Amino acid sequence: MNRSFKIYVYPHKRNDPFANVLLPVDSVPSGNYASESYFKKVLMKSHFITNDSTKADLFFLPFSIARLRHDPRVGVGGIQDFIRDYIFNISQKYPYWNRTGGADHFYVACHSIGRSAMDKANEVKFNSIQVVCSSSYYQSGYIAHKDACLPQIWPRQGDPPNLASSKRKKLAFFAGEINSPVRQNLIQVWRNDTEIFAHFGRLKTPYADELLGSKFCLHVKGFEVNTARIADSLYYGCVPVSIANYYDLPFGDILNWKHFSIIVATLDIPLLKEILKGISSEEYLMLRSNVLKVRKHFQWHFPAVDYDAFYMVMYELWLRRSSVKVS
């Protein structure tokens, strides 16, 4: 992949009226949906880019859903029309889209609205590769073998302090808004427990300290199946527990999640303590050792570092490329 994989990006200039949407950000990406901006920023400076379309394995649709949301000319209500018009324009100006109906094209989006943004561009939804954070195969717009999960990562650099010496006295920890029946059930069952700390609202202690002090950290489905909590857990050396049915986990084609995480069905929330306490000390040490091995795959860097999140997403795309190039 590193030697031969090539991406063609539809070209746009800085004087384009929507350059803010189509070009990489100049600043360092930050915030909850930074994965979308980080990927494009790193890709555009990488050796994977080609200006020769005949050498391209895939074609990148460079629009930013996150930036379209905040552009007053478009906004949430206008994103579907923007995407429809964008696809029409490139299909008229270039031959690449029409050759495959978009099957060798891809886009990247981290905000959940990215999925519904394709409702007026069905060829994108059903033909193109959708690299999205909201990767629920319960939703009709996401096709697991075609599409790929973009990990939602709150950007951090380097390793956290005192990770090796952190004392994990709590069995499990969760903090977040109650924005789904799954989280509501979790809080109702475990909010007063002395070993599973389930919080909603603002924490009184630093979030990082809670992650460093817990053996297991809970990723619980909210409005969507994805949150940044899995990457948070891995970064702070805490074994993630995913409670989100139908979640096509990040890099599921590459990583064996059973080796470094626990997956619990939402119906089993009342059994959560029994499940976690049923894990032997030897099993837990193996899980935590593997957490420290895989967390490098859930960090962004500019420029990219081997095996980081960028290279993992690129490998997912490489697996989905066509073995036959269209002339």
Structure notes:
The protein is α/β, with parallel strands linked by helices. Helix content is 34%, strand content 13%. A five-stranded parallel beta sheet has the order 1-2-3-4-5. Strands 7-6-8-9-10 form a five-stranded parallel beta sheet.
Outline the fold blueprint.
Blueprint lengths: L6 E3 L9 H4 L11 H11 L13 E3 L4 H6 L4 H19 L2 H5 L4 E5 L3 H4 L5 H6 L1 E4 L15 E2 L20 E6 L5 H10 L5 E4 L7 H6 L1 E7 L8 H7 L3 E5 L18 E2 L8 H6 L3 H14 L14 H12 L7
Parallel strand pairs: 1-2, 2-3, 3-4, 4-5, 6-7, 6-8, 8-9, 9-10
CA radius of gyration: 21 Å
What topology, given as strand order, has the largest sheet?
1-2-3-4-5
**Percent in strands:** 5-15%
Structural class: alpha/beta
Number of strands: 10
- Number of DSSP helices? 13
Encode the helix/strand succession as letters: EHHEHHHEHHEEEHEHEHEEHHH
